[in-house]
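Standup, Tuesday
Yesterday: got the pipeline producing C-alpha cells again.
Today: sanity-check two examples.
Blockers: none.

Example 1:
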Amino acid sequence: MSPLGDPGLAARAGCGRRFEFGLLGPLTVTYDGAPVQVKAARQRALLASLLVDANQIVPADELIARVWRTGSTENARANLHTYVMRLRRVLAGGGAPVPIMTRPEGYLIEVPDDALDLYRFDVLVDEAKTAEPARASALLDEALTLWSGAPLSDVSSEFLHREIVPGLAERRPLALEAYVDAELALGRHHDLLVRLRDLTARHPLRERFWTQRMIALYRCGRQAEALECFRTVGALLAEELGVEPGAELQELHQAILAGDPRLATPAPRVRFRRDDLPGEVPGFTGRWAETRRLVTAIDEAGPDAAVVVLAIDGMAGVGKTALAVRLAHRFAGRHPDARLFLDLHGHTAGREPVDPAEALDVLLRAVGVPGERIPERAEERAAMWRDELAGRRALIVLDNAAGAAQVRPLLPGGGGCLVLVTSRRRLADLDASETLSLDVLPPGDATTLFAGLVGEARADAETDAVADVAEACGYLPPAIRAAAGRLRGRPAWTIGHLARRLREHRPRLDALTPSYEHLTPDGRDLFRLLGVLPGAGVDACLAAAVAGIGLDRADRLLENLVDVHLLEQPAPGRYRLHDLVRGFACATARATLPDASRREAAGRMLDYYLHVAGLADRHFGAGRPTPARPPAHVPPIADQSAALAWCDEEYANLVGAVAYAAAHGWDEHAWRLPHSLWRFFSIRHHVEDWIATHRLALAAADRRGDRTAQARTLSSLAVAYLRVGRHDDAAGHLRRALAHFREAGDRWGEAECRSHLGHVLGRLGRHDEAAGLIHRSLAYFREAGDGWGEAGALNELGAVLRELGRHDEAAGLHRRAVVRTREIGDRWGEARSLGGLGAAVAGLGRYDEAAGHHRHALALFRAIGNAWYEARSLDDLAAAYRGRGDHERAVTLHREALALIRTLGDRDAENVILAGLAETSRRAARHVRGAAADPSHGVVPC
C-alpha cells in the first residue's frame, strides 16, 4: 500500500466494496462496479478538484478558487460547505461510505491507489522505469489503456484546465515515449512504424517521437525515409518556433548518415534460462492481418490459460517460419523460463522427419534434464516433458512439422506455455487454438520487401521493374530476398535487367521437391498430369478425366495436394495451382512423363472440355451434337444458370484449351470447342476472346478442308464482327458460310446463317432483303420444331419491322418470341425478346408499357451477368422515360448506361447512348423553355 493511501478505508467500506474514480478522460465514478451519476457541474468540479490531490488535504481557499474563480469570503466558504454536503449525499446514494473527510484546513478525499486511474497509471509507469524491456513494455501498455480521452474533458473549471489538466495530459506522451523506447529495445521497430507516424502527426513538435520514428525507419532498412523525417521536423520547427532541431535529433541525423553501428537493434539486456530462438528475418514486411489474428488468439487465451497452440501452414517459401519467429519474439517477454526452437525436418530434402522420441530427447536436454535421466520409450519421454514444463512459462517453436502425429507428443500439458507450429501440410487434426494458412505476399508487400532490401532510391527509379521482379518471384519472400541479394552483388545491373533474367529463367521452387517426393505414387501421378493442363484451375471431374481415374479417388488426391500446399482451394470443389507451382508441375511432367503419355492426357482433357462445353451450349441454343468421347464423370448442368456458372468458372481454361489444341495439332477440337462456346461468349460479351478463338478455329477448319467446320466458324465469327460494328466483314463471312452450308446440304446451318445475315442487312438499311431472308429461316425453324432458332428469328424479324416503322407487327413477333423463350427456359433469349417488345410498344407511344418490359429485361440481364446488354437496357429504359416526359429520370439512366458501357470499351454502343442522352437533354431544355413561356404548361401526360 502506498503511504498516500489509507489502510482503514477498505475495512470501513466492508466486503471489498468500494469507490473507483477516473480522471484520465471524462470524470467517472463507480461504486461496486456500478456507475454513480454526479450530474451538477459545480459538484463535478469540486470532486475533480479533490481527486487531483487525492489523499491530501486541499485548503478551502484553493477549492473555492478551483470551483468558483473567486476569492475567499464568508459566503464562498458557506457555498463550499453546502456543495461538499450535496456531493457527499450523491456519493452516499447507494448506501456507500462517503470518502470525503473534513479537516480544519480544508477537505480531502480518501482513495486507495488502485481505485484511482491516475494513481494506477503513475505506479505502472514508475515500475516500468526499472524493468527489463519486455516487462516495461507490458507495464506501459497496461498504463496507456487507462486513458479514455483528454483528462477531465467534461468538467467545467477554468482553474483545473489552466493549472492542472496540462500537467495530467503531459503524462500520456511521456509514457508513450517510454513505451516506444521499450519496444525499440525489444527489436519491434516494424510494429512501431504506423504508431509513430500517427504520434508525429498528432504531436508534430515533440522531437522525441521524431527521434524514435527515425530510429525505427533506419532499423527497418528505410534510411531515406528516416532522413526525410529529419527534413520534415526541421521545417516544422523552423516555421512554428523559429528554431532548429535539438541536439538529440541532430546527432541522430549524423549517425544515420554515417551508418553508426550503435543504431542497430540492441542485444537483449537480460539472459534467460534457455533461449534458442533464431533472430528475426531482416526487413520482415507485411503480414499485418495474419499477425493480428494470431496475436488476438494469444491475448484472448490470456497468460494463465492452458497451453496455447498456434499452427501456421503454407507452401514452401511462403514465410511460415519467419512469421512464427517474429511472433515468438513478440511474446518472448511473457515466457522467461525457456524459448525453444526445433526443426522437425518434416519436408527437408534428403532426410527423414524427426521421430517424436528423438525430438523429445532434444527438448528435455534443452530444459536441463541430464541424458542419463531421459527414458527410452517415447511415451515416458512425453510424460517427463509435460512434468518438466508444469508451472513453467515456456515458448516453443516446432518448425517444419510433417503432421499432427509428429507434433502431438511434443505439446506441454499445463498452462502458461505457447507453442507455434509450422508445416507445409494443413494440421486439421491438431487441437490448435488457432490455425492459419499462409498465402504468398500481396503484390504491394512483395514490392515493398524488395525495395527495402535494395534501397528505396534505387527502387523508386524503376518502379515497374520492381513489380516485374516481385511477380517473377511468385511473391514468395525467399525468392524475393535471393533476387535482391543477387542485385546487390552486381552493381552494374539495373532492376530491369534482373527482371528480364528472371522472366527468362524463372526461379525454380526447389523447395517443392520434398513436398512432391512425400506424395503417394498416385498423388505424384496426378500432380504431374496437372502440369499438362493449359490452365491453372481444376475440379474433380476434370482431374478424373485427365488421369483416367474414378471421381472419389480424384477428389481424395486433390484434397491431399491441398493439404501439402501444392494446390490452392479458392472455393469448395475448385482447385488452383499457384503460378510457380504450376511451373514446377509442368517441368516435372516434361521431365518424367513420356511424350505419348502427355499427349494422351491432353487428348482426354480436350475431349472433356469439348463434351461438357457442348452440354452447356444446349442451354444457350439448339447447338449441334459433338463427337467427343464422353468422360465418365461430368459436372451437373441442369439449366441455363448452371451452364453459365460452369462456363464462367472454366472460362480461362476453355480459352487456353482452344489455344493449346490449335498449337498442338488437335484441329478438330480447335474448331469444335470455339463453336460450342460462341453463344456463351455472346451472352457474356467476351468479344475479344470470341474473335480470337474463332480465328484459330477457322485456321484449323481450313487445314482440315472441312466445309461444315468452315461454315459454322464463319457464321459465328460473323456474329462477333456484328457485335463490334464490323457489318461489312460480318456480311462477307455470312455469305461465304451460306455457300458452304448449301454445298454441304446443311439446312439447319443454312437457316441460322440466313437469320444472322438478315440481321446484318437490316443494320445496313436493306430492310426488305433482310425481312425476306429471316422469313425463310423462321419457316424452317418452325417446321423443324427448333424453339431456339424460332425465337431468334422472331426477334431478328421484329427488329427489321421496327426499322420499317411497322411497330404493331414487330410487337406481335416479339411477344411470340417471349413465349417461346419461356417455354424452352432461355432466360437470355427472354431478356432480348422483352427488350425488343419494349422498343416496339414505345414506337406505338405506349411508354408505360415499354418501361415495364425494359425493367423486366434489365433485371434478367443483371441476373445473368451480361453487362453489355444491361447497359443497352438502361439506355432503352431511359428512352421510355423520355417518351413519358420524365427527362430527369431519363438523364440519370442514360448516364448510368454510359458509365457501364465505358467499362467495356465499346465505342459504337457508347456513341448510341451518347446520342440518346443528347436527345433527352434537348427535349428537357425545350420542355423548360416551354414551361417558362407558358406557366400553364404541364408535364407531358403518360
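Example 2:
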Amino acid sequence: MIKRTGKRALLLLLAALMLTAGLPVLAAEDLSSQVSAITSQLEDLEGTSSSPEEEPPESQPEESPLPSKPEGSEPAGGEDDPGEEEEPDEENPEEKAPLDASSLLVTGGHNTYLSGYEGALFKPDNNMSRGEVAYMFYNLLAAKPPVSQSQFSDVPFSSWWGPAINTVAAAGVFQGKGGNIFDPTAPISRAEYVTALSNCFALESGAVNFPDVEGHWAYPYIASAVAKGWITGFEDGTFGPDKPITRCQAVKIMNSALERRDEDFAKDRAQQKFYDVPSSHWAYLEIAEAAKPVDSMVDPPPDDRPFKKGDTVKVTADIGLNVRDKPSGAVITTVAQGTLLTIVDTASWPWVQIRMSNSRVGYVHSDYIELANGSGGDLPVTGDGAKISTGRVSLHQYQTFRLDASVTKGMDAMVWSSSDPSVAEVGYTVPYNKTEHGAMIYGKKPGSATLTFSDRAGTTKVSCAVTVTAPESVRYAYNDANTVTTNTPCNLVAVTDTSRSAVRFEIVKGPAQGTYNVSEYETQTRKSSYGLPDNTVRVFKKNMSFSMAGSYTLRAYSQDSSGAFSTDYKEFNLLVTAAASTTVTNETRLPSRAILDQIKSFEGNVWEIEDDMANRKHPTVGHGYVVNLHKTFYNTLTEAEAYALLVEQVNSNYGSTVNNFRTKYGVRMSQAQYDALVSFVYNCGGNTLNPSSYYTPAVILNAVVPPSDLGMKTYSGKLNVGNGLLFSSADITSSRLATVPGGSTVTVREYKRFSSSTKQEVWYKVTYGSTTGWMPAGYVNLNLSNPIHDLNYVDSTVLAYNFLQWHTSNGTHYVGLLRRRLAECKIFFFGNYEEANSSHPNYKKNTYGFVFPTCCTS
C-alpha cells in the first residue's frame, strides 16, 4: 500500500520500482527530476493496493536495493500461525481502486435482478459463484460497455454468462484471477463480493474492529461497506472475509447498497412462493425484493437429497472441511479428507447436521461429502498398521496430553476407546492428513485407564497406559507487569482449579523478602466445543509494589479444603528496575508488559487446540503456543490461562533465547530492542538468531562501537551479509557508485552516525578497489580484536530491510507478517510501541521510511 512519506520516501520508492522493472537506479539528482512527473500518479494510488497484474516478481533483480536473505531463511518452526494471518494480494483478484465517485449501478427503484431455480426453489444458503455474481451485477449496470468477444479463456462468449462476465469486467467491476482466467464457477468470498460492490461506488474511509479483518487485503473495502451501512458482520463479532457468500447474504447487502429500503420495499412479497424460503426465514423480505416472483404454485420438488438421517458419509474436500455451529455459522473445527461423519438431520439443506467420531455435532455443506463406500453408508471396518507415538502417558487431572496416532491405511475405520472413561479418554482428535492425527487425551480424575486405538474389526490395534494424578495446586503464576519500576503497583497472579480457597505468594530470592496470602478470587469459565467438562478456574491477584530494584524469584502455593497449603508450587520471575530507561546496556532483561500485549495482539487466541493449517502437525493453543508431541497442557483455555501461558512461554523460552544471544556475543541493547527481538523469535523461531545461518543476526553483530582513532587511521572490514551498495554520500538517495560483492574486503576510513527520533543510521566511508564512497555500516563486519557490540550503532537501513524479509511461510508472502515485521522495526529502532499496535492509525504506515524488500514495493 503506497503512502506519502515525503520526498525521501518517494525517491526510495521510485528506486525500488525501477529495480523491480529491471531498470537501472539513477543518481539522486536524476531521480529528483522525475519525482514531479510521477507524484500525482503516486497520490492517486494513496490508500489502495495493486492488482495481481501489478505485483512485482518474487525473484530479486540482479541489483536489489539491499541484499536479500540467504536461501531458506523464511520463518519456520516458530510460534506463528500465518494461516491466521493475511493471504497475499495475488490471491484476491478483486482488490483494486474504485473507478470514480459515481455509481455504476442503478440505485433506487425495485426492478428484480435475480431468479430462483426450477421447482420454485431459491436455494438461499447456496454459495454464489463468481459467474453468478457477475450476472447479477450485469442486470444492475446503469450503462453496459459494448463487448463482442471474451477476454477470458475459460468463459466462452457464447455461454449464458459470457456477455455478462465480459461486460462487468469491461466496466471495471471485476477482474480475472491472473492471465486470462476468470474462474466463473469458483465460490466468491464475502471480501471479494464487497470489494466488487465497492468498485461500483465511491470508496468511503472508515475503520472496523472485526478481529478477522485487521490486515486483510480487503480491509478498506470492508470498512467502506460498513461505513455506508451495507453490512455489519456476524453475531460473534467476526466478518468472515474469506467465507463464501450465500445467495441470501448477497441480496441483503445489494439491497442496502441500492438504497431500496423505502415504502415499496418487497412490495410483491405476497407473490413469493419459494418452497425453501418461508415467511419466517430471516431473509424473506430481502429475497422478495431481489427475485422475480413465482407466479403460480407448482408441485413441491421431490426429495432427491442423497443423504438421510443415520447415513455414514465421507469428507471429500481435499484440504479439509470446516464444521460449523450452524448453517453458514462459525467454524468449530476442521476435519480431514476421508473422515467419516454420521448424518443427524437434513432439514437445513444444502447444509446437513452431522455427528463426528468424538460425538460432537455440527453442520457441513453437502457439496463436500459423499456416502461412505459409495452406497448405503456402510461403515468401513478394517485398517492397517496402527501406531501411536508412546505407550505410556502421565498427566494431572484437568490436563490434556498430545499423543499422535497413524495408520498405513484405513484411518476412517479407526476408533479410540477407554477402559475407564471416567478417568481418561481421547477428548477429540486433530487431523493432520489422511493417515495421521493428534489424539488429545483428557485427564478426568486420578486413576489409571488403558486407551486403545483400533479398527472396528479389531484386526489392528495398539494401546496406551494412562495414569492421571492429582491436579496441580497452581496451574499458572506470574506478575502481570513482568518488568516494573520501583514503587509502581503491579499484580501477582495465580490460577487454580475450583477446589482451592486461597493462594500464598512468597519471595524466595531478591533484594527483599515477603509472604502474601490472598483469599479473594475471580471465577472464569470456558465451555468446551467437544463435549468435555467445562473448564472453570479461580484467578487470585495480589496488588503490590516493590521498593527495591533487582531480580526477584517468587513462588505461588494454594490452600485446599482442609486449610493446608500445598507443598508443590509454581515459580516465576520478576524484574524491578529503578526507573524506566531507554539506555543501551548489557544487563539481563525480561520482556515488558507492552511487548507481551503486543504479541498477544499479533497472535490472536485459540481457546481449544487446533492444527496450524499452514504448518501441519504443529497444533497450537492460546496466543500462538505450539503444543509439541507428548506435551501436557491445559485446553479449553480461559482468558487468564491463555495470557498466563503466553507469559510463561515468552519468559522461559523466547526471552531466554534473546538473553542467551546477548550474553554469548556481549551485545548491549535497550529494553525496546530486546522486546522487538523477543517478538521476532516468538514468531520465527529461536534459530533465527544464529548468525552463521541468517543475515539478520549478523547485521545486528555488525553494530560495534567504532574505534576512537577511526578517521586518523583505517581499518579493514568484510561484507558478511551479501552484496553491499556504495553511495556518493551518507544518504541512500545519493548516487550509487558501485555494488560490492558479498565476502569482499574493504578499507574503512571514517564513520557517520545519525540518531534522532526519526532516523537511526550508521555509515562507513570505505574504499573498494579504486572507488571510495559511503556504505551503510550494517553490511560490514569491522575487523577488530575486541569488538564492543553496541546497538547504539545499529544501522536501520540494512537491518530493517532484513527484518522485513521475514514475511513469507512455505514460499507464500503474507501481508500480516510484513506488518508485524514493520511493527517490530518501529519498536526496535525508535521504541514506538504505540504505532506497533494495530489499533493505531499509523499501524500500517511506513512512518520512518524503511526500505522494503523488492517483492513488497507495491
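Quick observation on example 2: The first helix runs from residue 6 to 20. The CA atoms of residues 124 and 248 lie 5 Å apart.
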